[in-house]
Design a protein that fits this description.
Elements (H helix, E strand, L loop, with lengths): L1 E7 L5 H14 L5 E6 L10 H15 L5 E10 L3 H13 L4 E6 L7 H6 L2 E3 L8 H19 L8
Parallel strand pairs: 1-2, 1-4, 3-4, 3-5
Helix pairs in contact: 1-5, 3-5
């Protein structure tokens, strides 16, 4: 199973890049994992919120395959614990899922078309966080889930 982390927006800021790289490297000991940063459309500044979400969503949908398991990060999604996340990942592996894509949408979220395509919608919190911090927390939580699956010491419950 491969893990893909997709985020619409700018490159990682230096203050979080080191942490994202560290946790992504750790995840690679369990599953192949990589980040894809999706640049907003060139004319993003002149697009309405609706048109921007639609343009970004078109890019996202064009990159997905039918077999991809899409996990959308959205504040309206389901909140789960770290052990539940580990169970979720293990279930995807048990189901022989080839690729799990974790998606962080653009500044205004994603278009309804991506919401409908999502296999699972996950929320870290009802709070809204900057994209850079969501990337860091996502990479850390996936690493934590991997360590829970292997019954390693990183997670102390």
């Amino acid at each position: 199973m491969k893990l893909q982390f997709w985020s619409v927006g700018k490159p990682h800021e230096p203050y979080v890049k080191a942490g994202i790289d560290e946790f992504t490297g750790r995840i690679n000991k369990y599953y192949p994992a990589e980040w894809t940063l999706i640049s907003p459309p060139k004319n993003a500044a002149v697009l309405s919120e609706t048109d921007l979400k639609k343009a970004e969503s078109d890019i996202i949908l064009s990159r997905l395959t039918k077999e991809d398991y899409l996990v959308l990060l959205d504040e309206r999604g389901k909140q789960i614990s770290s052990p539940e996340l580990a169970g979720f990942l293990q279930q995807r592996a048990n189901d022989s899922t080839k690729r799990v894509v974790f998606l962080i949408g653009g500044a205004f979220g994603v278009d309804e078309s991506v919401m409908k395509r999502a296999d699972y919608t996950w929320s870290f919190s009802k709070l809204v966080f900057p994209h850079m911090l969501v990337r860091l927390v996502l990479s850390e939580q996936i690493y934590r889930a991997c360590s829970i699956i292997r019954n390693e010491k990183y997670h102390h419950s």
